[in-house]
Design brief:
The protein contains one helix and eight strands; from the N terminus they run H-E-E-E-E-E-E-E-E. It has one helix spanning 2-29; strands spanning 38-45, 60-61, 67-75, 81-89, 92-101, 106-113, 123-131, 141-145.
């Protein structure tokens, strides 16, 4: 009888440990959806009034272009969370600015242009949007001025 009580106590302890471990694992892998930044409908264009193209469909612009804009929809964002918009030209950073997105979802447009209004230089460009709260690499969207 004594061995049987010891077995029941050990089985009960094992069950509690297993149950506690399961709750801990689920807690560690669950994701709060408001902490995961999502982008969709990304487009790169010169003028969104006349032309709206998804990124990758029009990836080349003629020399003389004075600005290139990135438009995207976003969701699952904590309110007032800053994002960093990073523009690179020929693999060198030309602009990186932080902006606060005031709503948890919406549409934003950010543009690259030179302060003096002169044309952007020829070459390969990329732009990415990085939420400051996340350390994962976000996709880069590429375009070229030829």
């Amino acid at each position: 009888m004594k061995n049987r009580s010891l077995f029941v106590v050990l089985l009960l302890l094992f069950t509690l440990a297993l149950l506690g471990s399961a709750f801990w694992v689920v807690g560690m892998i669950s994701v709060n959806p408001r902490q995961t930044f999502m982008m969709s409908n990304v487009s790169i264009s010169l003028d969104f009034e006349d032309h709206q193209f998804l990124a990758g469909t029009i990836s080349r612009f003629e020399y003389g272009t004075r600005q290139v804009c990135m438009r995207f929809d976003y969701s699952r964002l904590e309110e007032d969370l800053p994002v960093r918009v990073i523009w690179d030209h020929n693999s060198k950073r030309v602009q990186a600015e932080s902006y606060t997105l005031e709503a948890p979802s919406g549409t934003k447009i950010y543009c690259l242009l030179k302060e003096d209004g002169s044309p952007l230089p020829r070459g390969s460009y990329s732009v990415s949007v990085q939420p400051n709260s996340e350390r994962t690499a976000m996709p880069k969207f590429h375009f070229e001025i030829y």
